[in-house]
Amino acid sequence: MASLVVVQHKQPSSAVFQSSFSDFSGARLTASVQYKRKLWQPKGALRVIASSAKKILIMGGTRFIGVFLSRLLVKEGHQVTLFTRGKAPITQQLPGESDVDFSYFSSKILHLKGDRKDFEFVKSSLSAEGFDVVYDINGREAVEVEPILDALPNLEQYIYCSSAGVYLKTDYLPHFEVDAVDPKSRHKGKLETECLLESRGVNYTSLRPVYIYGPLNYNPVEEWFFHRLKAGRPIPIPNSGMQVTQLGHVKDLARAFVQVLGNEKASKQIFNISGEKYVTFDGLAKACAKAAGFPEPEIIHYNPKEFDFGKKKPFPFRDQHFFTSIEKAKSVLGWKPEFNLVEGLADSYNLDFGRGTFRKEADFETDDIILGKSLVLQS
């Protein structure tokens, strides 16, 4: 039986993450949000103010995006509940987060323990609590969303984390929000969720990130490059390395999530959210090196068709041009990324990998296959 509880703050030990980087916990971001609210308020772009505190449910919230989002929402004065299975700590002090900030956040955050795939429990527990707003960070299938909507008929807003992966592959880029989508993509569940929200007449907002990066990233995006740079290894990149892609910092994404809350201009709208500029695969490898203070790496290009990697994935990005326009979010919401790519990668490295923390151990098996063949060809 799940319960709604206040997660009590425990004094952090001296071994818990300490840092001089004061922006990890959202302090820097919060200051920025407050400044921009004042700047844009006459335009009606933001309606999130302390006096409009909401009772907010975040589906997920302890791994990556939600860690930053929940802190911003608490600082805004909202009552925030995380719905998780309880397998990970609900709060943990983060690098650069002061004891005072962590204590405040921990004293405010609430937890509802349960499995979102237990639909009957979701209906009963959510209807009993009642929430004004739902942030769905980890929803993958429409069937997982229906019980939430059924439980909360008076829901003010459903804010969904979708993916730019729903777009149909095309020769005409960047992707805009009105572009064709691919009903067969591996993100089809997110596309079906957007359709469900529209068909149910819900006041929803859906954000479509491209590749997300930043501290605590559990996907091997920047971490893949950092492992190789630290080991002093060449970086194998498929084909020409001139494929163009796009990355967005998790803190910029968290700010976007806050800015759509209660925003009439975000009602029943979809927004691409990512970085300002695009980058080639080769350029990304060099940017990671620059951000982390490593020498410019040796890059090895290879033809993936010449190798059999089995089920191993030799490169963490799709081997194609893949990027979006973020102009709609900039013009409608007044949002824009604060991090350029090198700054954002430095933030990620200094507050995570550079401290010896990462999600996946280095695995150079496919690299060695590629490099072995390259050496034979060179000789």
Automatic annotation (TrEMBL):
- Annotated membrane-spanning segments are none
MF annotations from Gene Ontology: UDP-glucose 4-epimerase activity
What domain of life does the UniProt record list for this protein's source? Eukaryota
Q: Which GO terms describe its biological process?
A: monosaccharide metabolic process
Domain (NAD-dependent epimerase/dehydratase): residue spans on this chain = 56-273
Q: Which Pfam families match?
A: Epimerase
Gene Ontology, cellular component aspect: cytosol
InterPro entries, A to Z:
Epimerase_deHydtase, NAD(P)-bd_dom_sf
User: What's the protein name?
Assistant: Chloroplast stem-loop binding of 41 kDa b, chloroplastic
What species does this protein belong to? Olea europaea subsp. europaea
